[in-house]
Amino acid sequence: RSDAQKFEFQAEVSRLMDIIINSLYSNKDIFLRELISNASDAIDKIRFLALTDKEVLGEGDNTKLDIQIKLDKQNKILSIRDRGIGMTKEDLIKNLGTIAKSGTSAFVEKMQTSGDLNLIGQFGVGFYSVYLVADYVEVISKHNDDKQHVWESKADGAFAISEDTWNEPLGRGTEIRLHLRDEAGEYLEESKLKDLVKKYSEFINFPIYLWASKEVDVEVPADGDESSDEEEKSESSSGEEEESEKGEDEDTEDKPKTKKVKETTYEWELLNDVKAIWLRNPKEVTDEEYTKFYHSLTKDFSDDKPLAWSHFTAEGDVEFKAVLFVPPKAPDDLYESYHDAYKSNLKLYVRRVFISDEFNELLPKYLNFLRGLVDSDTLPLNVSREMLQQHSSLKTIKKKLIRKALDMIRRIADEDPDEAKDKDKKDVENSSDDEKKGQYAKFWNQFGKSIKLGIIEDATNRNRLAKLLRFESTKSEGKLTSLDQYISRMKSGQKDIFYITGVNKELLEKSPFLERLKKKGYEVIFFTNPIDEYLMQYLMEYEDKKFQNVSKEGLKLGKDSKDKELKESFKELTKWWKGVLASENVEDVKISNRLDDTPCVVVTSKYGWSANMERIMQSQSL
Ligand code: ADP
Ligand code: MG
Fold first, then answer.
1. Which of 132, 144, 258, 478 could join 28 via S-S bond, C-beta 3.0 to 4.6 A?
2. 566: pLDDT confidence band, cut at 50, 70 and 90?
3. Which ranges constitute the DSSP H helices of 336-392?
């Protein structure tokens, strides 16, 4: 169109579109779930606004919050429309021409090599998947604050926007028209679309309708030009019906003859069941359904399954339902933005209405790796997000969510046969499930740091979190072990839990600090992560046992009868030595029973920084 305003795509978008349009990726189906997910997001947005301002919904058809799919076989057009929030001209330029989210270029790079588009929705560029199946796309959109506009592009590096003066007015919302490529003809088949919605959009909480054809029998008077009508009938009706017609013929011999013919009519056919999964009884939801729900929630449609989930209802003063998931993998940037750009991944609903997926008041920072949702009947609906954030019920919700989350994580360990090895026999027998084997080690590798951050930050749940801690030790034989297992192996008379910190296990194993402990059969925990030094400043004790850094002052290995004697006989030497080293920041020189072969070691004072901590602080100040 001549009066259309032309724009160029941001370079990044252009590159992405090139890759998509030339993609040999075989799973082109994904475009539909991306469009439906966008439509659903748009409806969520308008419904949220309507909570505090009913006017925004308008009236009549505009209040229908559904998604409609229509096929135009003749012109090879597939269209999807919603009565969501719509887009202003400015929105169209910004949302469908530039990429807002970070990390997208990494995705583009990855896609270029792997060709796997399955994760496209996670990167905030799902819309462009339309070019897997279409060579020309029109987006018609009406936002309350603007006139109706058409965005169009043939994926040739440019798009155009015009004020819409020729299409039917939408009222409000968006219609996406895909002009399908020749080889994408299958998306004009109703059965294909029904299958796709079933497969990928099962958990969309708004009705999805297809303008579907239906063969109906209609009775028409069988008069006049018999012959041509007769022909039509025999083409379209089945033998069975012919038979029934014979019967009718007999009954109605004297009446004016009518006959049945097939006619194609169209009507909106509902494709999904909109009952939200979290409202269902957990006993009736299958593992497969939870997994699929997880995929749709996270837009991660890879084959990975969540490591665990918890679906529960909280009753009492504060009522809510929740589904929590432990993802199979930690996102690359999980800890990068931990302090500054912390973002919770839980979706908040109030009485089935989506409120926000950036509601940080639901979970503490260290649990931001969890995915899922909370739907509360107690929280008020008609208040602003800011008011909601202050609501007193949130504290209760948060407390319960943390409990449930930690229970869920502990369950991964409890059900893992690898973990049960040193525990009760009955646990081993109960966990016959091969799928659960090694799951806790997997969890620990991905999210162990979060548990440690939890121990540091959450004093209330410190002991629960400490139970989840895993580490290697002088007796763990290359495997992970827990504090409970450590305690079960403690020697009689051993009071403290021994640990040592350092760069890696190999170096620590050679440490002179371990000589005597090993010889006497004491187990020592290896802490080799920088965060462990901080961790141990907070984790002072566990099950009434104190932690003792074996490179620090205070190590007691039980009394030796010769101790006193030795101390006496070397009194002069230690005194002299202390005098010599006093200028070197040495506090004391003592006879020790912690060594075996090595003649002497430098020990950190009880409240001083360990050598490892010194190293960490130094590297941080660089
Ligand atoms: P994402 O959905 O992750 O943000 P998309 O590429 O799917 O990324 O969509 C980009 C943006 O385009 C959306 O964030 C939204 O602002 C806008 N958009 C897409 N489809 C619609 C729609 N049907 N109604 C309103 N806005 C839409
Ligand atoms: Mg999207």
1. 132
2. confident
3. 385-389
CA distance 515 to 491: 17
Would the pLDDT of 114 be above 80? no
Residue 182: count of CB within 10 angstroms of its CB: 7
| β partners of residue 151 | 139, 161
Cα of 499 from ligand 2 centre, angstroms: 49
Expressed in angstroms and rounded, the spacing between residue 287 Cα and the centre of ligand 2 is 26
Secondary structure (DSSP) of 38-95: HHHHHHHHHHHHHHH-GGGG-SGGGG---EEEEEETTTTEEEEEE-SS---HHHHHHH
Q: How far apart are the first and last CA of the chain?
A: 60
Q: Which two tokens stand for residue 338?
A: 């931990």
Ligand 1 nearest-atom number relative to CA 125: 6
Q: How far apart are CA 8 and CA 162, in angstroms?
A: 15
Q: What is the whole-number distance in angstroms between the Cα of residue 291 and the centre of ligand 1?
A: 25
Q: Which of 262-266, 397-401, 415-419, 595-599 has the lowest mean pLDDT?
A: 595-599
pLDDT in tens, 215-244: 999 888 876 555 554 444 444 444 444 444
Atom of ligand 1 nearest to the CA of 45: 25
Q: Is 354 helix (H, G, I), strand (E, B) or coil?
A: strand
Residue 540 tokens read as 């002072």
CA dihedral (486, 487, 493, 497) positive or negative: positive
Per residue in 179-213, pLDDT (tens digit) is: 999 999 999 999 999 999 998 898 999 999 999 99
User: Alpha-carbon distance 596 to 497, whole Å?
Assistant: 20
Determine the Cα–Cα distance for residues 255 and 508; give it in Å rounded to an integer. 103
What residues contact residue 440 under an 8 Å CB cut-off, 6+ apart?
A: 412, 413, 416, 418, 419, 470, 480
42 lines ligand 1 (CB under 6 A): yes
Q: For residue 295, give the nearest of 111, 30, 19, 113 by alpha carbon.
A: 30
Residue nearest to atom 21 of ligand 1 (CA): 38
Classify residue 619 by burial, with Cβ atoms within 10 Å: 0-12, 13-18, 19+: exposed
Count each helix (H run) and each strand (E run) in the chain, helices first. 21, 19
Q: Which residues hold their Cβ within 5 A of ligand 2, which is an ion?
A: 38, 126
- The one-letter code for the residue type at 105 is S
Token reading at 131: 């070019």
Supply the pLDDT for residue 251. Answer: 53
Residue pair 597/589 in contact (Cβ under 8 Å)? The answer is no
Q: Which segment of 46-55, 160-169, 605-614 scores lowest on mean pLDDT?
A: 605-614
Residue 209 Cα to ligand 1 midpoint, Å, equals: 20
What are the angstrom distances between the C-alpha of 49 and each of 57, 58, 67, 386? 9, 12, 18, 14
Contact by Cβ (8 Å): 207, 64: no
Ligand nearest to the CA of 68: 1
Q: Look-up: residue for tokens 């592009």?
A: 153
